[in-house]
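Sequence, structure tokens passed on for absentees:
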Amino acid sequence: YNGILNRTQTKNITVSINASDVQGVSQVWSIPIIVRPTTNNYGLADGYKTISVLYVNGYNNALTNQALGSIHVNDLDDWSRATNSYQVISSTAGTFTANGSGLNGYLAASSTLYPGSYTVQTRVVKNSFTATGTVDLDVQSVDSEFVRQAATIRIQSEYPESLIDPTFGRRINTLRSALAQILIVTVDTIQILTIRSAPSTQIMNPLLPPLPFDQQKQQALTDVIFYVPNMAKELIENTLNTNLALFLSRYGIRATASGPNPCTNYGCPTGTTCRYDRTIQPLPYLVDTNLTSFVGINILDSADCVNSSTSVQPPSSLAADCITYSYNNSTYCPCTALQSYAPLGPYCEVLGRTFNANGGGYASFSGSAISNLSPTRFSFDFASRSPLRNGLLLLYGKNTPSVDDYFWTAIEIYNSQLRFHFGETISDTNRALNASTWYHVEYQFVGNTVLVSVNDCLYSSNVSNTTSTAYDPNVVQLYLGGLPAIGSTISDLYPSLMTVNTFNGCIRNVHSNGFYVDMSKAQTSTNSDYGQCSCTITNSCTTAVQPFINSVIVPWYTWLIIALVLLILATIIALGLLTCVRKRQQKKTLMSLYPDDIRENIIDYKETAGEEDHSAYNLGVLKKPVYAPTDDEIMSRMSMQNMGFTPMSNRRPSLGIYIEDKLIEQQATTIPYANDSQLHYTYEGEGSIVSDLSSIQSNESIDEHDYRFLYSWGPKFSRLADLYGGDDD
């Protein structure tokens, strides 16, 4: 071994040994090597861990008594979990165990898990040390359609554990951000379904020494399978394939392939051909680290070697807008005219068909739609309306006698469970079905063995498939939802079927040997319609159903232009707001020149000296004297001036003193008048000039031209008084 044995990288390693003697007898066996510390006196400390669980609706029973993740406490001597004892002391919901058979320090649910959050506390004991391990579980479920439409990206130099481990920086979050930016979607729409190890493309001799940790990690391949709403799987994988270099240059992730086809360079035995198929395995796929675990959907992309004489073939001609990608030999067709019937298959196949509640519904298809020649694989989904009734789901066989020379297949609902007919062999699943629930049914013929799965339950039977490749396909048909009830003797050919025309629900995704059955290509049908299965069947109409749209990827420069336009608009709005704020601040600065003013007494006048409004005030008030002497006083002063006397004490008081006297007089009166106050006018700025007063004109009245009061102003105005205060002559 050329690497370093230590506690952080290679504390567990397996070495293969080949031994042989001189007579040529040899044997290979493996020796596990565990690196442990020199002492065993380390204590324990409380630990915390998160576990994310994801499963397909109807597959939650597979989570029962399965390891969901190891129990974490801080222990420097964790080389063997089996030496510790574990006990669940509390849980917020459900029932959990940590000391079941084969768990060895792993947490498992002993009751069915449902979507939601769980908090489980465990007690860990090692020697005389005790610690508490707290686990937060987050459980989610998805529809099986997510799996069918999910895309795959292959990452090199990463293990599934290194992608989710917080000590490595949660690289899975970096990958989600990279996928979102390249696909131009939000990160929240990227739903990771599973993270699994992929087979290495390099063939290693098991007898050679194992590689050091760093070299093993550089060669490791990991497949991440994810779902994006409203985007076709083929479009996603093609977009990623054309941008693989961006993963490394921008995000430091080495992406080597998207949508890898397992049939590429795969060799099948003579008489068979390779067909790609995706299946959901019953048991979950666990990726475990100290601080977090991810329990994903066990998705298997398999290379099926099916009978080369199968009648199931791709369409002989494709539409002009269909594209076959060379990197994985997948085909994508936009199917624009059929989007109202979505979801669709890659060749525009309509995948769903609903059988109405009126009864007597069925649809028949050509016998070449599927095949039962071994080896073969066949699958479909179905959901029944409430209440659950007995009814025929599928019959694949001859429509003329005799039927005994053909290996016919039928599946029906009988006594609330599924019953399979493989020729004359009848097999019951003994599992109760529920209405308004989707079930995935799959069977595979391998020789004389048939392997059956219904969601997360597996069954097997031994049968005798005697179908010859020389049979006439024109007398074989596929019936879905029932059999013709009027003018037909087909039901009489299969007397072992209990009910033939009472199924009430929907069937979708009928898949045989790598291709889907087009539900719109029925030869005959009654009381059934093709298209998307109604959400009322499963009571899932909580939100508006978005049609499955093969989204067009918007170029990045379009988003750049939109961003620039929005930035310019934001800049203009910001400048406008700043201008308004600046003007308001300048106004406040000018008003602060009067710190003692009363705001409600400020008068803002916008007209220039009253030029536009001559009737809003009385100009005569401005011309009347504040102090008006009598005629006798005026004449007396004139005579005194002529005699050389100067008046001493009869001067007019100043305006300020006059105003103050009037204010004191008003406040002293016993009659309560409104309080008078001085009015301050708005500051007009330094250097203001008097506006035009041309509108203030003299009145023609004689009373208004009486200037004799000028004599009361004193000697300084005597000349002015003589000019204007004298007689007219």
User: Anything to note?
Assistant: The longest strand covers residues 129-142. The first helix runs from residue 144 to 148. Residues 143-200+213-311 form one domain. Residues 515 and 573 are 57 Å apart (CA to CA).
